[in-house]
Specification:
InterPro entries: NADH_UbQ_OxRdtase_su1/FPO, NADH_UbQ_OxRdtase_su1_CS. The chain is mainly alpha-helical. It has helices at 3-10, 33-65, 81-90, 102-118, 146-167, 171-202, 207-212, 224-237, 249-252, 262-287, 295-298, 310-332, 338-370, 375-408, 438-449, 452-456, and strands at residues 126-131, 134-138, 415-416, 432-433. The chain has one domain (9-370). The termini are far apart.
Length: 457
Amino acid sequence: MSLAGSLAHATTGVTSLVPTLDRPVADFSDTPWWLSLVKALLVFVFLLVNTLLVIWFERRVIGRMQQRPGPNRTGPFGLLQTLADGVKLALKEDLTPKNADKLVFILAPVIAGAMAFVSFAIIPLGPTVSMFGHLTPLQLTDIPVAVLLVLAVAGVGVYGIVLAGWSSGSTYPLLGGLRSTAQVISYEIAMGLSLVAVFMYSGSMSTSQIVSSQKSLWFIIPAFFSFGVYVITMVGETNRLPFDLAEGEGELTGGFHTEYSSLKFAMFFLGEYVNMFTVSALATTMFLGGWQAPPGIAAINDGMFNHGWWGLLWFVVKLWLFMFFFVWLRGSLPRVRYDQFMRFGWKFLIPVTLAWVVAVAFIRGAQLSFFGGNTRTATLIVVGVIAVVALAAAWVWDGRRAEKERTSRVEVPEEIDPFAGGYPVPPLPGQRLREPSLQVAATAAPTSTTTPEANRG
């Protein structure tokens, strides 16, 4: 069974626990077909412009973190540097390896680049607004299982990676493609499981209904563990530092796109950054209230900042907070080891997230049974209990770890004999040299005082 089918089956019985709420659903009845095309074009331009900005932003921020200016020549503050690099990349020679499968070699970057844009179609960028005389949601489309569409599209995007590595006809791209595919598929499982808790709290997999369910309380509070798991998996899903293991320069050169150049390479480059915006937008929608204003601001003048085009502003602010998080990780952390990262995903994230999903099911049932659906009070109580249990478990685990380290610690003597084993051994830092043992000195003395006459005798 596919991941999307498993999540749909797992959440089928959960929605019956959720009471019927007065939640507005995205209404596209006043949206003609040509307006949908206009919105699709605007989403495409929005992602392209933000990609140009985030590349400049990343280079400037990392430059500041490394005490250098970053791009500051082309255009004011270097803002046109990304555009200049794009033009240069497009004018480069387009090379195709001799042993490559040419059709698949061309198709792979198209799949990777196109799939990155499709997922953004179900993201609500704002509430219902007036566009060209029509009332339409700031969302391209919405379906009852919109979140599963994102996971399905992410699964299709993996084909672009594995086909790029295989079709190149080269060893390093093949290894990079296999490594990246295994990583993305592994962390898609944990990502999907982390979203199940949100489905339980909202009672829907429609993105517009999930946003409207967070009017009183953002899901980052009751589903805090799911949010932490999602943040880890979204970095692994996008192959970004410290998890860009498919592009280890010392191991696989450039990874699956080593043999690509010119516009084909640009498609992979564009797809990576658009995927960053997609997973960040999904995190904003699922955990941070989507386009809704922060709680303090939302209460001003009966929620005037939650209407009209204000929602787009809050959405973009939250989106760029995640983009800064991506950049901060790249400038701060080193690349982890591949086997450790995969072990962390399969042996820790997935089992713990499964246990969390079961716990949320019981918690949600207790909220509706004992607290009459009062989500805020029940959530605070449950989060407090879970925090106490987690602290107690961490304290016990830390004590056991310290005891294990104490028993397994090897005592290093402060003073050593450099000739104790018959061979000169240099001291470790902090150690003192002792006079050589008498036995070694005695065996070494005749050798050093032997005369040529004694040897002849």
